[in-house]
Design goal:
about 300 residues; alpha/beta; Spore Coat Polysaccharide Biosynthesis Protein SpsA, Chain A; 2 domains; nine-stranded mixed beta sheet; two-stranded antiparallel ribbon; 12 helices; about 45% helix; about 20% strand
């Protein structure tokens, strides 16, 4: 049995999944298996994975596209290690990640369910490091964990169940909330993940984002209510998603909930009033505002390549 099981869900990312796999094979921890779950890709993903002759690499193809949560669940069920780490198909790990995380969990009791690390935020097109997130965001009503930065004990899934396949977006966030309510999360204050930012991420799917955010707020209302302002910001974000997706009626409902939670935030009133102009005007004004701020902002700080 390997010490660590690495689960890589992938869909139409033949151009990047090989780099993700290679970053695992280059780890200083060698006792692992890789389960690549192809969510019915239409490109050459199978061929790319097949070129890796390492026996630790397994390839599983889904019969149809079922989403990230289902793919991760298949990976968990097909794996066997006591520790499970997740890597998105467009991200990369730095070599010591698995070693440091396994050492961290082995040195602690089972009340620590998982450990995550800091990350580099990388422009996928240029390879430029745009930012380095060094501090974890654990506060009442919020938890900020990048999926590619996580290692979790298999015990957590055996106790709490798998990823919720009914949530089309943020199913990973849902899972971390469920784990954090039962176990503690550790943190390694070193950036060990290269987290890619580009236009072809799932987070560009407005419909999936709005449905997922709405499901998350309904499912974990008690968790988010621990901080009224943060709770309100999530409803504000949901309202903007709905309006961008031309569902202004649902957007107004979300804005009103945000106002009820935090009546002192002028941004919510602005967005509510803007929604009354209709979805086309809403989108045009918001995009114009983004262009204005982008043009006024100083040039992005050029970081080093990790």
């Amino acid at each position: 049995m390997p010490r660590v099981s690495v689960v890589i869900p992938t869909y139409n990312r033949a151009a990047s999944v090989g780099t993700a796999i290679r970053s695992v094979l280059n780890q200083t921890e060698h006792d692992f298996e890789i389960v690549v779950v192809d969510d019915a890709s239409a490109d050459d993903t199978e061929g790319v994975v097949g070129r890796f002759r390492d026996p630790r690499v397994q390839y599983v193809r889904q019969p149809s596209n079922l989403g990230d949560a289902a793919a991760r669940n298949v990976g968990i069920l097909r794996s066997s290690g006591p520790y499970i780490a997740f890597l998105d198909d467009d991200d990369e790990w730095l070599p010591p990640k698995l070693e440091l995380q396994t050492e961290f969990l082995r040195a602690r009791g089972p009340d620590v369910g998982g450990v995550h690390t800091a990350r580099f935020i990388v422009d996928k097109g240029t390879g430029e490091v745009l930012d380095t997130r060094l501090s974890p965001e654990f506060a009442p009503g919020t938890i900020s964990i990048t999926t590619s930065a996580v290692m979790v004990r298999r015990l957590c899934f055996e106790t709490l169940g798998l990823f919720d396949e009914g949530i089309p977006f943020c199913s990973d966030y849902d899972m971390w909330i469920r784990i954090a309510e039962r176990y503690r999360f550790g943190y390694i204050d070193s950036p060990l993940v290269r987290y890619s930012v580009h236009t072809n991420r799932l987070s560009c799917n407005l419909e999936a984002m709005s449905r997922g955010e709405d499901a998350l707020l309904r499912k974990h209302g008690e968790f988010f209510s621990a901080d009224g302002r943060r709770h309100a910001k999530r409803y504000l974000h949901l309202g903007v998603l709905y309006c961008f997706n031309r569902e202004v009626g649902k957007g107004r409902v979300a804005f009103r909930k945000a106002i009820a939670l935090n009546p002192g935030d002028p941004r919510t009133y602005f967005n509510l009033c803007l929604s009354l102009l209709g979805p086309t005007a809403f989108r045009k004004v918001k995009q114009a505002k983004e262009r204005l701020f982008a043009s006024a902002a100083p040039p992005a700080r050029r970081g080093h390549n990790a």
